[in-house]
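Deliverable D5.2: sample structural annotation.
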Amino acid sequence: MNNQQQNSNNYGYPQQPSTRKSLYLIAYIFNLICTVILGILIIPLLWCIPATIASKRAYNECDTPQEVSHIGLGVVSLLLVSGIGGVFILVASATKPEPVIVYQQNQSSDFNSPNDANSNGR
């Protein structure tokens, strides 16, 4: 392996997953365990299975352009499936970095501000 390849992949070591991705994985595991435990009752499976599948999808979408907010999933998991899993999903959703939009003002010389028109003595 040459030096360029070693530098591009962190000296041959695999990169660690992000903290948010780890939080989603832990939440998925807790939701899966609670779904299996609640499997002895038929009615709770109606909301446990979809919430568990959604938490797995949230884990797969983490750090991709297709990722959306999962606050609703966190609340549903918190109330209906696993309290710990729901808290992990809410924390992971709250720590999502939002894109920063920078507004750049046009600095062209053709644009005169209203104060410039008043400064001509009129």
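Annotation notes: The radius of gyration is 25 Å. The CA atoms of residues 12 and 115 lie 60 Å apart.
The annotation will be released with the project's public dataset once the embargo ends.
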